[in-house]
Amino acid sequence: MTQPSPRRHHAIDYVELTVTDLEQAKRFYTDAFGWQFNDYGPGYAGIRSPQGEAAPEMGGLRMGQGAQAGGPLVLLYSTDLDGSVEAVKNAGGHVVNGPYEFPGGRRFHFTDPSGNELGVWAQA
Questions:
Q1: Cis bond upstream, residue 99 (ω within 30)
Q2: Is residue 4 part of a domain?
Q3: What is the pTM of this model?
Q4: 27: domain CATH number?
């Protein structure tokens, strides 16, 4: 008998962010959001799930030439948007838009030290 898969058909399963300095990126995401990583060599680190090591990884940080503007926008959820703004700033990120209100909540966009733009939102 097969076990049910924790993965959902056609759901976003994994997101890779291109970074220019892997150690700096890991420090930033750890300091800003408490992320933890699985190291797979000098050019790649998997992003652990907050549900523990038994859960699939959520994504990864991949060494490359830097961020490309205009790509998909990854949004994170926060229960404390103002706290998330401060955590991003304190970790070395730059808020590039917001916080601002939208129907159903508030959000802001930031860039990480490699230039990747992500957003964080909270319900109203």
A1: yes
A2: no
A3: 0.88
A4: 3.10.180.10
